[in-house]
TrEMBL record:
<dbReference type="InterPro" id="IPR032710">
    <property type="entry name" value="NTF2-like_dom_sf"/>
</dbReference>
<dbReference type="Pfam" id="PF10184">
    <property type="entry name" value="DUF2358"/>
</dbReference>
<protein>
    <recommendedName>
        <fullName>DUF2358 domain-containing protein</fullName>
    </recommendedName>
</protein>
<dbReference type="InterPro" id="IPR018790">
    <property type="entry name" value="DUF2358"/>
</dbReference>
Amino acid sequence: MNIKITSQNYTAQVKNVIDTLNQDLPLLFNQDISYDIYTPDIEFIDPVNRFKGKFNYRIVFWTLRFHGQLFFTELYFDLHDVQQTASDIITANWTVRGTLRLPWKPQLFFNGYSTYKLTSEGLIYYHQDTWDRSPQAILKQFISS
């Protein structure tokens, strides 16, 4: 079912999505995010995952928090900016950095960006993360620090 919304309401909804991402993303390793800006069939893709559905999306964020607290003494998601880059696209640029819970305290560091695609109602139906290096290169940081 497609619900028609006015241009003014769409603009307000996009602002709400950007505001929500700005609030949620910097804290995603510490607390849950808001899921009301996503469609029930949200599709998520990153270099190691691909799935659909809000339930699976929630599990990814729970898993990030769980593993972050388990394996890291410090873990940060530095959000640099969130921008509407097209009428139906929002992009967020970020850095993940942390210290692994090992005696030699290896450091994790990589940059990336998230591309969010919006429905005509201004809800996110697609989220793709792109990293500045391969998953293997990220893992190598743990043994070569």
